[in-house]
């Protein structure tokens, strides 16, 4: 049995750890949650402050049950819990007891959600076993394709920086449901190994012509397949909207009337430094980080970067696609005021088995990178955070 709680009053007695774990699902179900408890956890405070629940700061009184559709008991004082049960019984309201399943009249199952399907496993006293069964079902659902494709249109999915485990749960679920997958060069190959044989795979890196023509061709493929009724996953390295042309593809789809879903990804601009032990921000060291593309040099009239401003900044600079122009970029930053001894580092193929990194200074990084034979994809980090090193 499932309950439709949307807009209905649910009483939560208790404001501690158990209530904290139970309330989010009730919020997701649209319930009007009223918490009665002398104390409240910080997370529950957050829900109350945001207007997602109300709080009465005192112990339970039998009259609290009146008008509720469901009562949750999340306290560990047996006598007080019994009092709630008795009041619920009298008002004919179902009552969930976190402390005593025998005394309850309703139970919360272990749940897994998979797209539009929810699987609930109810236990008869062995909660641990129910959760294990739930996990098995969740695992099976994750690897099994959906019976009929419930998705339509195009999903722009961030694949993460390289480690196949760094795609999001949502991204992975959509990938398993795709009829067509269009992937970039930087997408982790391991993610593509699991695609069902009938999935059409388009390698965007192999599309000939110049970059502009190739992009038009990709847009055309996305729109055309989606209009055929197929579910298209456009898989991109890192995050789709960080130097990934995701915006252009979203616009092309929207103009053709194709629904677009964006699934953000773990961007290499933060992840690659992190995996080399460099936090892009650090308390007391920097209050900013700036992500810059170095694919056009600082002397090019095409550059949209304000290099003098960048040279004046004190915080972290994260440079993507910057290896080729690194000598000119480093030189320009120094000319614009950034000290040559500013710590700098480079991270090649972050998060993969081939990850390499080296540390240097702004003045020497270009020469050190050349000498070490660092190759793309690589990220350069400039700023005092490089010294924080963990
Ligand atoms: N959308 C991507 C960036 C695409 S631009 C993201 O959010 O990560 C491509 C550039 O990203 C590469 O030239 C390189 O600078 C950087 N890059 C991507 N993956 C990387 C990785 N695993 N390690 C280091 N740099 C990476």
UniProtKB/TrEMBL annotation:
Superkingdom classification of source: Bacteria
The Tetrapyrrole methylase domain, residue ranges: 154-365
Gene3D superfamilies reported in the protein's UniProt record: Cobalt-precorrin-4 Transmethylase, Domain 1 (3.40.1010.10), Methyltransferase, Cobalt-precorrin-4 Transmethylase, Domain 2 (3.30.950.10), NAD(P)-binding Rossmann-like Domain (3.40.50.720)
Known pathway: Porphyrin-containing compound metabolism; siroheme biosynthesis; sirohydrochlorin from precorrin-2: step 1/1
Pfam families given in the database record: NAD_binding_7, TP_methylase
Coiled-coil portions: none
Alphabetized UniProt keyword annotations: Cobalamin biosynthesis, Lyase, Methyltransferase, Multifunctional enzyme, NAD, Oxidoreductase, Porphyrin biosynthesis, S-adenosyl-L-methionine, Transferase
Catalytic activity annotation: precorrin-2 + NAD(+) = sirohydrochlorin + NADH + 2 H(+)
CDD domains assigned to the protein according to its UniProt record, in alphabetical order: SUMT (cd11642)
NCBIfam families registered for this protein in UniProt: cobA_cysG_Cterm, cysG_Nterm, PRK06136.1
Alphabetical list of PANTHER family matching this protein: S-ADENOSYL-L-METHIONINE-DEPENDENT UROPORPHYRINOGEN III METHYLTRANSFERASE, CHLOROPLASTIC, SIROHEME SYNTHASE-RELATED
The protein's name in its UniProt record: Uroporphyrinogen-III C-methyltransferase
Organism this protein belongs to: Paractinoplanes deccanensis
Gene it is expressed from: cysG
